[in-house]
Structure formats: C-alpha cells, structure tokens
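Long-time lurker. I teach an intro course on protein structure, and each term I like to show students one example going from raw sequence to a predicted 3D structure in token notation. This year I'd like something fresh instead of my usual example. Would anyone be willing to generate the tokens for the chain below so I can use it in lecture? Attribution to the forum is fine with me.
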Amino acid sequence: MAKKVVATLKKEGGVKYAKVIKAVKSPVTGAYTFKEEIILQDEVQAAFKG
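-- Reply from a regular --
Happy to contribute to a lecture. Here you go:
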C-alpha cells in the first residue's frame, strides 16, 4: 500500500531523487499514518522492503 511519486528535484547531469510515500500501521491504535521520504532513486526498492 505504497506509491512512488517522482520528485522534481533532479538537475541535468546530477543525482536522481524520488519521493516515497509509505503507509505505516500503528501497533497501538491500528490506524495508518503516511511517512514521506526523499531518497536516491537507486534505493527505492530497498526502502519498500524494510
């Protein structure tokens, strides 16, 4: 239940970034919250695994 949104944070010839939004379930209340991160595009798959 996560989606990837490509951010406009890249420069020509520079490092590519991606904005990742994950739904995280609270263990106490059971409610979902959303966690947003801006990470390198190469690390997107690793962010969803862990």
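Some talking points for your students: The CA atoms of residues 39 and 46 lie 10 Å apart. The first strand starts at residue 2 and ends at 5.
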